[in-house]
Specification:
Beta-Lactamase; single chain; 2 domains; two-stranded antiparallel sheet; 276 residues; elongated
Length: 276
């Protein structure tokens, strides 16, 4: 995830809530600690690079349980370990809310909102910090998916370099990754993530050659799933399309490709660089 993503989420939450300080960080899956990497509104460097261990401090509790944790008076809250009192005191923080960055039920980090005076948080303030954590979680989920698909692409490129061609099984894994990534990309609104996804898709299938037809995005979506052996009904369920709509896209693709059946349409789409 680009640093600007978390910085933007923190800045947005601070503008909405007017809290004194927003800070946070995240890690990779199955790691028991994370590092504070970004902050807004700080006066010192006490929080920068602070390593938060699972179960330690307020953030460590939220991280361990993948659930929000709030302290109206951090330094006098007996339920919190005293591991990070020095950093909290140095920044003169008193009330702190820790909202977990959760992906598929697993905590990946924390977004904190804090004030320099003791007191409870409003529901609106907690909601805004939680939304910042949700924004970061979405970007991390996109990055995870991109990394997964990039690995498939890099594996295919390596296989090409070490022998004449990947096996049928290996090619099927690449083709499945291509279809899954196209499905995932349709739900991504972030421009940076869209560009990254498009770059990976281009590596998998560089696009129509001069001799080949230009298929629409939906036609390629349908053919990518035809290539996996799915029926028209199954394709409709995957793409949330009516059965007749799927048939229409398939007929249009076949007409453009000059194909006489489903198998030939996939073969020609591959020949023209539309499918891997």
């Amino acid at each position: 995830m680009k640093g600007s993503g978390i910085a933007g989420a923190l800045s947005g939450a601070r503008q909405t809530t007017h809290l004194d300080v927003l800070f946070g960080g995240y890690t990779t899956p199955e790691v028991d600690r994370f590092t504070i990497t970004h902050s807004v509104g700080v006066r010192t460097a006490a929080l920068n690079g602070l390593v938060i261990r699972k179960g330690a401090g307020l953030g460590g509790l939220a991280f361990a349980h993948a659930a929000p944790a709030v302290a109206a008076d951090y330094l006098h809250d007996e339920t919190i370990s005293r591991d990070y009192d020095r950093a909290v005191s140095a920044e003169d923080l008193r009330s702190v809310a820790a909202l977990p960055i959760v992906i598929e039920g697993v905590s990946r980090g924390i977004v904190y909102g804090a004030r320099r005076h003791a007191g409870p948080f409003t529901a609106a303030e907690v909601k805004s910090v939680a939304e910042a954590a949700g924004t970061i979680a979405f970007r991390l989920a996109v990055d995870d998916a991109v990394t997964k698909q990039t690995t498939a692409v890099e594996t295919a490129e390596y296989l090409r370099s070490v022998r004449s061609a990947p096996s049928d099984r290996e090619w099927e894994q690449v083709r499945a990754a291509f279809a899954e990534l196209r499905e995932f990309a349709r739900g991504v609104e972030d421009p940076t993530a869209q560009a990254e996804l498009h770059g990976i898709l281009t590596k998998l299938a560089p696009g129509a050659t001069e001799a080949g037809p230009a298929l629409s995005a939906r036609e390629i979506d349908v053919l990518a799933l035809v290539a996996l052996g799915l029926s028209n009904r199954e394709i409709g369920e995957r793409l949330h399309l009516e059965l007749e709509t799927v048939k229409s896209y398939l007929r249009a693709a076949m007409r453009k490709l000059g194909a006489h059946n489903r198998v030939e349409s996939v073969a020609l789409a591959r020949r023209y660089g539309q499918l891997p």
